Amino acid sequence: MNPAMKIDFVSDVSCPWCVIGLKALEQAIAGLGGEVKAEIHFQPFELNPQMPQDGQDINEHLAEKYGATPEQSEQTRAMIRARGEEVGFAFTMEKRSRIYNTFDAHRLLHWAEHEGRQLALKHALFKAYFTEGENPGAHEVLIRVAGEVGLDAARAREILSSDEYAEDVRKRERFYLEQGINAVPAVIVNDRHLIQGGQPAKVFEQALRQIAAEK
Fold it and tell me: Nearest-CA neighbor of 48 among 179, 173, 178, 202?
């Protein structure tokens, strides 16, 4: 019998390395060829919890937060674009000019977990932001994307128009911060093993195989 493996993927919708990490993790799981039965659960982390709803210019934000020059930011974008190509994800940098608030996206992802559509919604939100350049905090974008992955759009609108799941998300955010998670992606396997960062698929595969062997 293949061992079950619980994977908590702590991440933010506005984190490019989280896209790369998720795609690489999925490749690693596929590379194990059924040796493990992995279940991925997405846990919330906000890189910019104080970000206003209309967002901030991305170059301005990177300069303020990291002290990055335009040249350094462009080098980082080129690296991210190349890593994205390696895992089969298209980063369309020229369409992404702002950083946005992602709290409502996390609320929908929390709901989607109960509906069995969390993975599909996560991928769709990454594509909406990083490939299409849309605002992942805009309610109309969230409602449309939810409907596209098979969730009830009317129910999504109802959630977003209220504070539903807000405290659940904040509670999970606090939990991971208290556990020392201050950078994402953070991949926690079976509540014990931490794999940090957007690692290559071979690194994830080796780690998962070692963890499976321990069981």
Answer: 173
